Amino acid sequence: MALFHPIDEKDVTRAIVGSFMRQFDEYAESDVIIVGGGPSGLIAGKELASKGIKTLIVERNNYIGGGFWIGGYLMNKVTFRAPAQEVLDELGVPYESPQEGLFVADGPHACSKLIAAACDAGVKFANMTIFEDVVLREENRVAGVVINWTPIQSLPREITCVDPVAIECKVVIDATGHDACVLSKLEERGLAKTVGFGAMWVERSEDLLVEHTGEFMPGLVVTGMAVSTAYGLPRMGPTFGGMLLSGKRAAEVVLEMFPEKVAAS
Amino acid sequence: MISNLYIYAEPRCAGLAYTDVADYVAELLPRSAVQLRGPLLESKVEGGEKDSSLLDEIAESLAKAKVRDLLQSVPSDQQALAGEVAYERRRLANQSSVVYGLMYDAYAYSGLCHALIPQAEAGFDQLHIVFTNQLIGTRDPADRRYHARTVLCGSPSIISISGLVDAPARSPEYYIALRGAEALGLGEESKLELASSFADDCLSYDDQRMTEVVKGYAMQAIAYRLSGEAFCSDPKCRLFNAHWQKELLKAQLGEGPDFCSEHEELFQRLSKDGVS
Question: How far is it, in rounded angstroms, from Cα B58 to Cα B9?
């Protein structure tokens, strides 16, 4: 007797297509689209989805988690300064404290717990999906993103020219790290101005990054390293506390825009 | 002659005893009335909604004074991003916020403070000393880049607590060891350990020695007002313009008299007849 239940290939295909399309159709209009599935985007997504906010994370890579899998010098230990260990406690990530106020966790453990927490909260993902442009509404309010499959950009245009599609939302969060892709696109179109990140000064930069996290322009919230790029803050070293607390701050800012949903949750 | 001397405390620097600083100054200048006040910028916006336009104005001025590029002068018409203004608003409104790390053009910062001083207190016989936990910098025309400053003497004089910690360089040995740690790819843990091993040789933000140190910097502001020269070339005098942390600690905490004989005499003369 076979171990697995007999299923035809066509049924497997229909299961994939049907499930994907239902989700894609539902999330063609979201409350919040987060561009970038690194630590700040993930924690923001988790916080929002847990309050009933319909949240989609767009990630250009196949894998979610960004740089959270590894720390400095490709070593898979990630460091946090107090009070960021409180987020690790929330997520159930074990850590050790080599000295007062400093905490070290395994990158794979921390990252996978964070991804799982975001999924459990109800976040949906569009991975292998590249951000191409923003959707704008009246008075240049950001109201969605234009996306395409990531592999498209690897193909020569002579071979394929695939038009993107647009999905809508009430708020976009730029969590794309140093590149600040959403902000850069707006800057390219003359609709926003960023400052670019300053010299590395780890001791000070985490606080500044969290404190500057917020709405950059109507409909666009900026979090994580994109905040440094937006406001010319000192560039951060490989510490992740700022990413997590910035993501939480971004979620707080967005939640204020959805009072009715927060009240109902 | 300084008739009135106003010291504006920075509430975000825990452990700094401003009363001791005011007492020290008052003892050296017995003919001056020394008044200790709350923070200058924040005191102007503590009125709730009625002051919200002033809060906006101060926040925007601060955002415009931010040094974005150490190699470029802050343009007089620098525009502030909405998020930068919002950050300054939040920081001004929250006196428990200890966030620092940005650098502001010292002259623009001083200009903003000057504009908030009442006309009746703006005479040449009035001296205002503003403490801040923010970093201020001036652009050196020689190397055309900004440098962090401990004090900017003028009207008002600004003393930067962040500047006392971060402007004077630490010992060369520290930087050599830091470069070594970076070359080896060592993480934050090692760098923090390294910094703590040099802690005795430099000031830190919650340093118990800070009160004693700022007394000397307050006197530099006073000396500038009285004589047009804030600094002294004697490395043991409290008016010495220290460029290294070791120099700063030696000038402010070293054994022996507080000032060189020339400045000792100046302050003694002032305490007797009030003439500079």
Answer: 18
> Chain B 44-83, CB below 8 Å of chain A: which residues?
66, 68-70, 79, 81-83
What topology is assigned to A31-129+144-264 in CATH? FAD/NAD(P)-binding domain (3.50.50)
Is the CB of residue B58 less than 8 Å from the CB of residue B132? Answer: no
Measuring CA to CA, which residue among B40, B33, B34, B36 is closest to residue B54? B40
HSE value, Cβ hemisphere, 13 Å, CA-based, for B121:
17
ipTM of the complex: 0.77
What are the two backbone dihedrals, phi and then psi, of residue B139, each rounded to the nearest 5 degrees?
Answer: -90, 125
pTM: 0.83
**Which residues fall within 8 angstroms of residue A198, CB to CB, at 6 or more apart?**
A228, A232, A233, A234, A235, B68, B69, B70
Domains of chain B, start order: 4-273 (3.40.390.10)
CA distance B181 to chain A (A): 12
Q: Do A233 and B101 touch (CB under 8 A)?
A: yes
Question: B40 is written with which tokens?
Answer: 């200058």
Q: Are A94 and A146 in contact (CB under 8 A)?
A: no
Q: Are B65 and B108 in contact (CB under 8 A)?
A: yes
For A218, which DSSP code? T
Domain coordinates in residue numbering, chain A: 31-129+144-264
**Mind listing the pLDDT tens digit for each residue in B107-147?**
999 999 999 999 999 988 999 999 999 999 999 999 999 99
Nearest CA in chain B to A192: B81
